[in-house]
Amino acid sequence: FLSLSLQAKMSRPVQAQRLEGIDKNFWVDFVKLAATYSKANLGQGFPDFPAPDFLTEAFTRALSGGNHMLHQYTRAFGHPPLVKVLAQFFEKLLGRDVDPMTNVMVTVGAYQALFCCFQALVDEGDEVIIIEPFFDCYEPMVKMAGGTPVFVPLRPNPPKDGKLMSSADWRLDPAELASKFSERTKAIVLNSPNNPLGKVFSRGELGLIAELCVKHDVLCISDEVYEWLVYDGKQHVRIASLQGMWDRTVTVGSAGKTFSVTGWKVGWVVGPDRLLQHLRTVHQNSVYHCATIAQEAVAQGFQRELMLYGKPESYFVQLCKELQQKRDWLVQSLDGVGMKPIVPEGTYFLVADISQFKSDVPGVPSSDEPYDYRFAEWMVKNKGLAAIPLSAFYSKAHKKNYGNFIRFCFAKEEATLKAASDILQKWKQEKTS
């Protein structure tokens, strides 16, 4: 028996080939560092303030109310009250009819929505255009589907008047973007408002993307999870609302970002049935179903917001106003100590230039690691301030070009932001003394 058990030990590779090279994830390291060392965690993108009372009360009612069926399976592709209210919302936002049963699907957060998009729509050998910087899961998800990522960067154009740079100053080169489209291009991934930069793509920029999609018969996967977090009177334009785009666009949304409940993992996709039917196939053969009670509570939250749409009492309006104030406070704090912030038009992230702080953290000339990785690791270990290196949101070929920036999250309680500001002020005093 002993010899048989030794022979039974597997020697053949067990890892699926499609996982090759995508097993490592920088979040694992930086989450561990933040948990171990940080006094102020502005790294991960989640609020540390409470969810709105009306939403947690809705969850409590669903949990303890008389409808015991809320503890059981609901419709696999979305709890009927939730898909119905989402359809009502998107009819208003897109200016078109939206069928709750065929044009909306609920997912386990926006993350699973993206996974369904790539698995359902991308085939072996297809090219998918990804705009840099990008939310880091796009690249591995494309590769897992058998596709080839093709990258095109937003290029910074600093203002000449000495003002702080805005996320609007990072732009696509129209000719460069057009050159990435070919007969092999299946889709382009759009993220507006953009994580990590906070850029809100203008109607003109979206029009350029739409024109190229129509010309080359390309799909658009539009990640719009920060759709309600847009500042300074800017407008979030949904690319699915542009001419010729509804039929080729899947729009991804998130209750986690919309209602400040990232742990609930309720997301959705909105789009034409000709696309969503394939996403439903992936969904039903992976997770199949999302938590019923969370969907019920989110549905009630949206019903409230539909009645208050555009009014000052709306949570969407109040949260946006509150976060804009926090953004401005962090911008002022970073600028005051010499970390040059890029003022975001949306999301709850801002990127800062760390060039003036590089003397504190010596680089390693022979290292392949981008400088901002080293800086962010040193900063959390030695100063207790957690942030994320911007180069983590770039392809391998472009990481070192953007190694002088780090990303902060300002969707935090005032106490967290003040702790971060105190760390920065003390650091500045140490540098000048």
From TrEMBL:
Annotated GO MF terms: cysteine-S-conjugate beta-lyase activity; kynurenine-oxoglutarate transaminase activity; pyridoxal phosphate binding
Biological pathway: Amino-acid degradation; L-kynurenine degradation; kynurenate from L-kynurenine: step 1/2
Keyword Iron assigned: no
Recorded catalytic activity of this chain's protein: an S-substituted L-cysteine + H2O = a thiol + pyruvate + NH4(+); L-kynurenine + 2-oxoglutarate = kynurenate + L-glutamate + H2O
Pfam families: Aminotran_1_2 (PF00155)
GO BP annotations, alphabetical order: kynurenine metabolic process
Keywords, alphabetical: Aminotransferase, Lyase, Pyridoxal phosphate, Transferase
Superkingdom as given in the UniProt entry: Eukaryota
Residue stretches making up the Aminotransferase class I/classII large domain: 39-420
One GO CC annotation: mitochondrion
Cofactor dependency: pyridoxal 5'-phosphate
InterPro entries for this protein: Aminotransferase_I/II_large (IPR004839), Kynurenine-oxoglutarate_AT (IPR051326), PyrdxlP-dep_Trfase (IPR015424), PyrdxlP-dep_Trfase_major (IPR015421), PyrdxlP-dep_Trfase_small (IPR015422)
Family: Belongs to the class-I pyridoxal-phosphate-dependent aminotransferase family.
Self-association state and partner proteins as the record states: Homodimer.
UniProt-recorded name of the protein: KAT1 transaminase
Species annotation: Melanocharis versteri
